[in-house]
Amino acid sequence: MRIFKTRHFAKWADKHKVDDALLIAAVYDLAIGLVDADYGGFLYKKRIATKGRGKSGSVRTLLAVQISNKAYFLYGFEKSEQANITLKEKAAYKLLAKSMLGFTTKNINERLKEGSLLEVKYE
Fold first, then answer.
1. What's the DSSP call for residue 19?
2. Which of 70, 68, 66, 92 is CA-nearest to residue 4?
3. Are the beta carbons of 5 and 16 closer than 8 angstroms?
4. Which of 55, 60, 75, 111 has its C-alpha lying 20 to 30 A from 48's C-alpha?
């Protein structure tokens, strides 16, 4: 499975010390059915425990996932900053998820080259 993050998400993740290993673990959890919220349309909310904090005091992420194919981290937030996303935001992220999950390899490579998308690397 290929895992990606948007440039905006990557900046947020760096600021909140959410490294690629944590993102990979979150996608693995989703693949085995550990889902925090399924918003439909392949859009999920997943809590990620950051170093020194458990999941309850950690960060939340929104990601678009097609199991065994690809995953895109779209948005992240701390519970202390925002309790949840609004209905309007959910609708917008569902549209974004649908669009991004439809990317061809050529679309992905173009976005990787321009820097709007970054690939999460397995180490």
1. -
2. 70
3. no
4. 111
Closest CA to 78 of 60, 90, 62: 60
pTM, to two decimals = 0.91
Q: Where are the beta strands (DSSP E) in the chain?
A: 2-6, 37-40, 43-48, 59-66, 70-78, 117-119
Order of strands, sheet of 43-48, starting from the edge strand that comes earlier in the sequence: 37-40, 43-48, 59-66, 70-78, 2-6, 117-119
Q: How many residues does the chain have?
A: 123
The pLDDT tens digits of the residues spanning 19-62 come to 999 999 999 999 999 999 999 999 999 999 877 666 566 899 99
